Amino acid sequence: MDATVNGNSRFLRRGLKIVHLRLAAALGETGAIGIAAARVGISQPAASRLLAEMEEIAGRPIHLRSGRGIQLTPEGAALARRAARALAEIGAAEREVADLGRGLSGHVRLGAVTGPALDRVLPALRAARVALPLVTTEVVVAPSDPLCDLLLSGGVDFALARLAGGRDPSLFDLQPLEDEPVSLLVRPGHALARAGAIAPADLLAYDWVLPEPGTLLHRTVLERLAALGLPPPPGRLSTSSFLLTLAMLRESNAIAPLAAAVARRFAAGPEAGPEAGLVVLPIDLGIVVPTYSLVTLRGARLTPAAERLRDLIQAQTA
Predict the structure, then answer these.
(1) How many degrees, rounded to 5, is the angle at CA 217 between CA 211 and CA 220?
(2) Do 96 and 13 share a structural domain?
(3) Could you report the per-residue pLDDT of 153-201, keeping only the tens digit for each?
(4) What is the DSSP letter of 133?
(5) Contacts 24+ apart (CB under 8 A), 191-195
(6) What pTM was estimated for this model as a whole?
(7) 119 and 95 fall within a common domain
C-alpha cells in the first residue's frame, strides 16, 4: 500500500504528532530513552508510551532493548533521520516567516530615474547587503513615465521618480526628496574642457545629446537656455539611453546634460587622457530638474522587506 493517499500521509492519519518526531529524532541522537525524554521535556514513562505509539503507527518495531539503552531498528533509524529533517524544515519555516514579517527576507522591486539610482539606490543596496542579507532586489532604471506605468501595473513596489504629465495624482502617494542639478559632460580632450573660460554661447557650436522631445530633462534644458536668451542647441541624436549617450560622448565632440549625480560617477579631471572618464565642463547654466519623489500607489501597503529598503533609501543623502 502507498504511504500516501491523495497527499495525506498514512502516518498522519494514524496519529503521528510533532512530539513523536521530536522523540524519534532525540532517540536517533542519544540511543537512550531517558536522555531523549529529557531533551523533549517529558518523563521517561511518557517517552516509553510515545515509543509504543510510534511502533503502532509504523506497524513495525522501531527499537530493540540493548543493555541500559535502546538500539533503533533500520526502520527506527530511518524514522529518526526523517524526523530530524522534518523538524529542521519546521524550524526553517518558522525563521523564514519571522524574517518575512520583520522584512529580513523577501524580494523587492523598485524603480528609479538615473540620478537617484546612483545617489540613493546604489548606496542603500550596499547597506542592505549587511542589514538585509536575505533580501533580493530588482531595480529598473528608466524615465518617470514608464516607472509610473510599472507602479500602476504592479511591476515595482515603489519608485524614485516624478509624476509624469497627465497622470492622475490621486492614484499616487508622493514624498518629495530632492531636486536634480544638471552638469554638462564631454569627452576627455574636448576643446571646451581645455578652455580657460566658457561663455554660454560657446556651447552652441557643438551637437548636444538630449533625451527625446517631451521628456522632462529635454523641456528643462530648452526652458533654461531660453531664459538665458539662447536658442535650442544643435542636436542630431535624441535618446534616453544612458549607454548610448555615454558612447556618443566618448566618440564625438557632443555635449550631454546629465544629472550631477551621474556626472560625479563618470567624470575625470580636465587633463585626463582619452581612456579616462568623461569631463564636466566648468560652467553652470543653472539647469535644475524639478524635485523627484518617493512614489507609491495610494493605499498600497509595502511588504516588510520593501519598507526596510525604502527606509534605507530615504536615509541616503545626495
Answers:
(1) 130
(2) yes
(3) 888 999 999 987 778 888 899 999 989 899 999 998 899 988 878 999 9
(4) T
(5) 191/253, 192/255, 192/281, 193/270, 193/279, 193/281, 194/270
(6) 0.64
(7) no
